[in-house]
């Protein structure tokens, strides 16, 4: 599961991170400020969000308003109890009052993981994408997709030597794909793990993935560890 911690205070983020680092179910953990979260959440697509309420430029409620209902489990973290009712009105799962114990934090994390699992069961991954053009309607099976590339507000699906343009963002597509088969390797690329036949190191930790048909797709340094863990399964 992917976790994001949003707080303008680095020490506050660290207090949560050090407790969660030992959880084996957490495959990716990111930290950012409220301003950064508005950009980061749609790209990172976290499963669980620990979100501070009071932040100087963009508060927790404004973050959720801007990104929409895209995070399965949101836990507000604040030193004030006055926002509890409003938090649950925006469908927050939990409300952590500072200072909190490690046990309390772990209990909220456990509830959040259960909610994420429940949502995954309730919303199975798509088996095919419907691509509509002026001349025809194409049905592209997800199992046939080699990789996907961002194209502004569209995405290009590369499947069996053909390219299909679909009007979905990368975050929207990633949400619909089976994470056991597809992995985000760059902010602009998703690959079918079964199509990867090699990896060539580049500078500064980045790599180039080589697909079965010879296509080369960049793997960013930030996503390399997660990619290698998924491939090794």
Explain how this protein is built.
Helices cover 32% and strands 33% of the residues. It contains 7 helices and 15 strands. A hairpin with a 4-residue loop joins strand 6 and strand 7 (137-141). Helix 2 packs parallel to helix 3 (60-67). The longest helix has 21 residues, at 102-122. It starts with a strand and ends with a helix. The mean pLDDT is 91.
Overall pLDDT score? 91
Kindly provide the radius of gyration, computed on alpha-carbon positions and rounded to a whole number of angstroms: 19 Å
Number of strands: 15
SS content category: alpha/beta
Distance between the termini: 15 Å
List the total number of helices.
Answer: 7
Given as residue ranges, the uncertain stretches (5+ residues, pLDDT < 50) are none
**Helix fraction by DSSP (H/I, runs of at least 4):** 25-40%
Strand order of the largest sheet: 2-1-3-4-5
Beta-strand residue percentage: 25-35%
Q: What form results from the Cα inertia axes?
A: globular
For the largest beta-sheet, the strand count, sense and barrel status come to: 5 strands, parallel
Order of helices and strands: EHEHEHEHEHEEEEEHEEEEEH
């Amino acid at each position: 599961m992917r976790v994001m911690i949003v707080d303008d205070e680095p020490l506050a983020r660290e207090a949560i991170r050090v407790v969660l680092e030992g959880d084996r179910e957490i495959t990716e953990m990111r930290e950012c400020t409220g301003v950064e979260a508005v950009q980061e959440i749609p790209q990172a697509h976290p499963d669980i969000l620990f979100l501070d309420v009071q932040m100087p430029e963009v508060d927790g409620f404004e973050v959720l308003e801007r990104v929409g209902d895209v995070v399965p489990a949101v836990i507000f973290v604040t030193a004030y109890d006055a926002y509890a009712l409003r938090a649950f009105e925006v469908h927050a799962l939990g409300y952590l009052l500072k200072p909190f114990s490690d046990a309390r934090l772990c209990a909220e994390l456990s509830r959040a993981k259960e909610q994420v699992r429940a949502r995954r069961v309730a919303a199975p991954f798509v088996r095919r994408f419907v691509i509509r053009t002026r001349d025809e309607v194409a049905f592209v099976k997800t199992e046939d997709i080699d990789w996907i590339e961002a194209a502004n507000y569209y995405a290009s699906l590369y499947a069996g030597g053909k390219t299909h343009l679909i009007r979905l963002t990368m975050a929207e597509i990633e949400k619909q794909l089976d994470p056991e088969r597809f992995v985000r390797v760059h902010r602009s690329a998703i690959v079918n793990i079964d199509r990867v036949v090699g990896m060539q190191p580049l500078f500064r930790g980045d790599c180039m993935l080589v697909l079965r048909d010879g296509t080369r797709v960049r793997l960013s340094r930030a996503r390399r560890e997660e990619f290698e863990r998924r491939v090794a399964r």
